[in-house]
Amino acid sequence: MHADSGNHDSSAGAGTAAGRSGDPGAFDVLVLGGAGVDTIVHVPELPLPYADSYMIDGGIRARAGQTGDFVALGLAALGLDVHHLDFLGDDPEGDLVRALHRDKGIALTTVPQPAGTKRAVNLVGPDGRRLSLYDNSRGRPDDRFPADTLRALAAASRHAHVSITHPCAEALPVLREAGVGISTDLHNWDGENPYHEAFAREADVVFVSVAALADPEATMRRIAERGRAEVVVATAGAKGAQLLADGEITHVPAAVPPGPVVDSNGAGDAFAAAFLFGRLSGEPPLRCAGFGALAGAYACTVPATQSAALPRDALLARAAASGR
Questions:
Q1: Transmembrane segments in this chain: where (predicted)?
Q2: Could you tell me which of 210, 213, 201 has the C-alpha nearest to residue 234?
C-alpha cells in the first residue's frame, strides 16, 4: 500500500490506470460513484415544524462530499491508495468535488455529466441527526461508465467499493469479471426495494443501516444466502452494529466518541472505510468492525461543514487502547 500524496484528474476517455506511484496495479481501492455536493443547514429541531421562514444562525454552506467522496477520504486518511471514478458536471459543484480530491491527494477520473453534479440538502438537528434531501435529477437513465476505463481501473485495483448511485449497478458485472473484491453500502434500504438487489447480490462485503429494516438479522442472512457476501454489517448508530461472518451474528458495541457529537453525516462512510482498511490489511471481520466503530464515532465529532477523517495512526492507537 502507498501512502504518498498525489492526484490524477482525467477524463474517462483516457483509458489510463496507474496509482500515485505510477505503477499499474498500485491502487488499493477503486471507489465508484457517490461524488457530489451537500448544502448543510443547521435547524433548531428535527422534524422541522412548518413555518414561513427560519433564521439559520450557523449559516447555510455548500461543501463537497457525498458517500463516495467520504469513503475515498476515509480510505486515503488510513494510508490506502484510492482512485475515485464518477460522473461530474462542468459546474461550480463539480469544481468543489475536484478541489476536494486535489487537496486530499485522492486520484479522480471523471465522466462528463450534462445534467450536472449530484447535490443534496442536509438538515442537521442540534443532536447531530440529519435529514437528507437528494436531487435525483442529476443523471440520465442511459448513463454508463465507459467500459474501457472501468476495466482498466478495476484491473489496477485490489478492491472496489461501489456506491448505490446510478449507474453503478451496471458496472457490477465488469467488476466481477475483473476479479476484484467488491463492497457496497445499501444505506437505509428497507430490505424490499428491488433497486438495491443487484448491489446486495454481487458484493463480497455488504453494509446496511438498520434504520428502515423490520428484521435486520433476517435481512442480513437473506443477503448472504442469495448473493456472494462473505460479510454483512448492519449499523445502528449509537447502538453499535451487527456483524454476520461465517454464519454467526455478533454484536459490535459502539465506540465512545472522542468529543461532543455534532453531526452523524458521514459516520456510515467512515465505518465502511475503516472496515475495508482492516479487511485489506488481513484482519479478521470482528476486528475490522471494531475499526469501523472507532472511525464512525470520530466522524460524529466532525461538523457537517468540514471534511475530515480519522488518520491511520490515530485509529490504531484508539484500537489498541480500547482492545478492539
A1: none
A2: 210
Domain assignment present for 1: no
Q: What is the pLDDT along the chain (324 residues), one digit of tens a residue?
A: 322 333 444 544 333 333 333 344 579 999 999 999 999 998 999 999 999 999 998 789 999 999 999 999 999 999 999 999 999 999 999 999 999 999 999 999 999 999 999 999 999 888 878 899 999 899 899 999 999 999 999 999 999 999 999 999 999 999 999 999 999 999 999 999 999 999 999 999 999 999 999 999 999 999 999 999 999 999 999 999 999 999 999 999 999 998 988 878 889 999 999 999 999 999 999 999 999 999 999 999 988 767 778 999 999 999 999 888
- Crossing angle for the helix pair 267-280 and 67-77, to the nearest 10 degrees: 40
Judge whether 131 lies within some domain.
yes
Q: Are 73 and 309 in contact (CB under 8 A)?
A: yes
End-to-end CA distance of the chain: 23
| 3 located within any domain | no
Spatial separation of the C-alpha atoms in residues 269 and 283, rounded to whole Å: 19
Q: 4 lies in a domain?
A: no
Task: With H, G, I as helix, E, B as strand and everything else as coil, classify residue 293.
Answer: helix
Asked whether 207 and 268 are in contact (CB, 8 A), the reply is yes
Q: Are 192 and 62 in contact (CB under 8 A)?
A: no
β strands within 46-189, DSSP E:
60-64, 82-88, 107-112, 118-124, 130-135, 157-162, 181-185
- Residue 127 lies in domain: 9-322
253 three-class SS: coil
Q: pTM of the entire structure?
A: 0.90
Contact 233/244 with Cβ under 8 angstroms?
Answer: yes
Q: Is 145 exposed, middle or buried (0-12, 13-18, 19+ CB in 10 A)?
A: buried
Q: Which amino acid is at 13?
A: G
Total number of domains constituting the chain: 1
CATH number, domain with residue 236: 3.40.1190.20
**Residue corresponding to grid cell 498525489:** 6
Dihedral pair phi/psi, residue 109, rounded to 5° = -120, 130
